[in-house]
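Work Package 3 (structural annotation) set out to generate three-dimensional models for the target panel prioritized at the project kickoff. During this period the team completed the workflow that converts sequence records into discrete structure tokens, so that structures can be stored uniformly alongside our sequence database. As a representative example, we reproduce one entry of 194 residues exactly as it appears in the project archive.
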Amino acid sequence: MIKFKVVVAGAKNVGKTSLLRRFATGKFERSTLSTIGVDFETKKVVVDDTEILLNIWDFAGEKKFRLLFPSYVSGASGALMLYDITNEDSLNDLYDWINVISSVPNSPKTKILIEAKSDLVRKVKREKALEIFDKFKFQGEMLSTSAKTGENVEKAFEMLGREILKNSLKRCSNCGKHYPLELKFCQYCGSKSN
């Protein structure tokens, strides 16, 4: 099984913890307390016949905790970034999160943008979010998710896993195992990469 560290980022109250808990447990908790510092979940996903264990770090959205964020981003393969479709400030706040993530040496190669709370009435124009999506070269597609209904929650994490695989590893044509893109030879069987 392949293990990847990922971080979940976004403004306070965008629904990061609710999304993560829905993914990890399959349940929606109506009253979730704000994360203080970081929260952590682990869950397995299967992407194209490959088992991936995601070690997911849910980071508090409050500005006072952002000084700690770079140390948690270090070593992460992916970042799931959320904004709340009912709150334009949460979309604008993504600029801060992107800057923090980008400032970390060896920052995650894979960044996914997620629209949260799709069960509520949209107040943020999707076109504005798509501009940010294109400007910062987010991978995959911008999914609308709802922790309450479960809409696209599994799909978001599967997409994250798929994009991390694509951006970090290649499959050996000889033995079928995944190994880092930067290697010229498979670390398992020694075959030269294509």
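Residues 2-180 form a domain with the Rossmann fold fold (CATH 3.40.50.300).
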